[in-house]
Amino acid sequence: MAINISSGPYAAGAAIVEVTYGLSPEAVIVAPVGRVDEATWEKFGAHLSRGVEEAASQSRPTMIIDLSGIEYMSSRGLRALTVAKQEGVGAGVSVRLAAPNDIMREILAISRYDRLFAVDETVPFAEGGGA
């Protein structure tokens, strides 16, 4: 299921992010695609909150955020990750990041979020992903 969470002007065109959700026996997988910036971060955060809620209600111990489709993430997007992690702690759900592309790997390293979150090279528990 793809959900268009925002559209609005951005210097290079439209800032659009789509989010898909997946389920495995172990996790809810949230897979955003696009830019997480000033125009999209709030709705991105709302979808992460939904992922935490889904994981808790479906008795899945983990929510995985698949970063492979993210073209850019601003500091507000990073804040949304922090809030999701805090919500996960409150709900008993571990929040992990997975499959960062080169851009996201650099953003995570510069911001030190690669130390705040567990970061997997592939999407764990997904068909064809590593564990």
Automatic annotation (TrEMBL):
* Classification via PROSITE patterns: STAS (PS50801)
Span of domain STAS: 17-131
Task: Mark the transmembrane ranges.
Answer: none
What is the protein name given in its UniProt record?
STAS domain-containing protein
Give the species.
Sphingomonas hankyongi
